[in-house]
Amino acid sequence: MEAIANLLAAAIERIRYSERLQMMERAIESSSNGIVITDATVADNPMIYVNPSFERITGYRRDELIGKSCHFWQGQGTSRDAGEELRNAIEQGRSSQVILQNFRKDGSLFWNEISIAPVYNSRRHLTHFIGVQTDITDRKRAEEELFLKSQALATFSANLKHLHRITTYHYQNFEELVDDYLTAGCLIFGLSIGLVAQVENRCWIVRSVKAETQIFVKGLELNLNDTYCAAAIDSRKTIACSHIAKSSLMGEKQTYKIFELESYIGTPIFVERKIYGTLSFCASEPRKKKFEPEELEIIELMAQSLGKFLAAHQMEVERQQAEKERSELILSLVESEDRYRSLVELSPEAIAVHSQGKIAYINAAGAKLLGASSPAALIGLPVLNFVHPNCVQIAKERMRKVEEENTPIDLAEEKFMRLDGQIIDVEVAGIPATYQGCAAAQIIIRDVTERKRVEQQLLHDAFHDALTGLPNRVLFIDRLGQAIRRSKNSCDYKFAVLFLDLDRFKVVNDSLGHILGDKLLVAISARLQACVRASDTVARLGGR
Hints:
Structural class: alpha+beta
Largest sheet: 6 strands, antiparallel
Distance between the termini: 40 Å
Shape: elongated
Strand order of the largest sheet: 8-7-6-11-10-9
Strand content: 15-25%
Low-confidence stretches: none
Helix content: 40-55%
Number of strands: 16
Mean pLDDT: 80
C-alpha cells in the first residue's frame, strides 16, 4: 500500500508540474511583448523559441527564426553602442537592457527596446538567454515630433526678432535695407535666391539679388508673363509653391523651363497703393514642407517695409511727407510687435524673459505653471527662486551662457518649485534676447511632471510584480548577479538564496477562488518583507 501511495503522489505531482508549465506557456504565448529564448550552449546563441508577438513585431514566421542568430534582422541603422552592450552581456552571461533600431522582414525600420536575462542550471552553467522586446516606434516618433515642434517655435521666435531688428535699424540707403532683407529672407524660408524686381509695362526688371549662383543678375529683364511673379502681381497677393513641377499653372511658365526653379514664394511691393514690383525667394530644389501662414505674413511684412522705405526715398525732398512715411513705418513695427506679443501671450507654452537676474516678463501660461495668480505677481522676482536647490548651479550657468555669451541653450530637464512649494519636473530651453537695451534670455518652460511620473511608473512596473509589488524575476536576477560579483570581490561577504514554494496553493485557488488566492499571496509577501532587512530582497518569480 505504501508503494502504491508513493506512486500516486508522484503522479499527482507530475500532473501539477505539467499544469504549471502549461499556464506559464499560455502566459508567454499571450504576452503583447515579443519573447525569444536562445540556446547559450551553441555558438551565436540560436533561437529555439519565439512567441506570436515576436513574430508580429519582426514580421518573420517562427519557422524562419528558429535556429538563427538574433543578429540577422539588424542593419546599418542599428546602434553600435547598443549592439556592443548586448554582445558583452551575452559573453559575460549577465542581464542587459538596450534600445535598438531593427529591420522587419519587409525592410521597414522599427525601434526595439530589448531586455535579456541569462538562465543558469543547478550547476551554475549558462544554458539559455531569455529576451523580451517591446516595439517603441510610436514613442520614438512622438519624442521626435515634440523636439521638432520645440525647435520650430524657437526658430520662428528668432526669425521674428531678427526681422524686427532689421525693420527698426535706420538705413542710409535703399540698397543696404534690401540686402539685409534678402539675406534674412533666404535664411527664414530656407531658399537660396532672393530677389527684388520692379515691374514696368509688364516687364520684370531685377533691381536687387541675393544668390550664390549667376542665374539672376542685377538689371536682368524678362517678360512678366513668363515669370512666377505674374500671379502675385495679377492677384495682388502673396503666391507660394513648394514644388513647381506639381503645379500645372506655374510649371508652364518660361522661367521654369529655362531656370528650373522648383520652389517659390513672392508678394507684391506696394508704394503709395501702387505696385512697384515684387519681393520673392526661390530655389532650384523642391521645398521639403509647404509654406506656413506665418511665413506668408513675414514676407508681406518685409514687402510692406520695403514699400514704405521706397516711398520715403522717392519723396525725401519733401520733409513733411518723409515724416509721414516714417510714422507709418513705426506704426507697422508696433503692429508687428503686437502680433509677436499676442503670439507669446496666447502661447500654451510657458514663456518668460529673464534680465539682470530677475523675471522681466512672463506670459499667463508661465504664471500658471509657477503657481501665481497673474504674471504681475512674478515680475521682478529672481527666476532662480523657482529652481530646485539641486539644480541651481546648473541653471545659473545655463542662464549665464545665454545672457553673457549670447549662446542658445538646448532643451534640458530641471526641477522647479512652485509658489505653493510643490516640486515639478520641467524642460527648459532658452535663446538670447534684448530687453530694454540690456542682455536678456527668452526661456521656454514645459511641465513634464506627469510624463516623468508615467515613465517612473513604467520603469517600476517593468521590474516589479503587479500583484504583490515585490521585485520580479528580472530584478531578482540582477540583484543576485550583484551579490555574486560582490562575493567574488570580497571573500568575507556571504549571502544566501532561499526559494519558497507554497504547497497546496492550487487548493486555495480552486476552493476559495483566485481573488482570495491573490490576497493570500499579498499577505504572505508582506510577512516575508517584514522578516528581512531593508538591504535584503524578497522577489516573486511567478506571476505574469
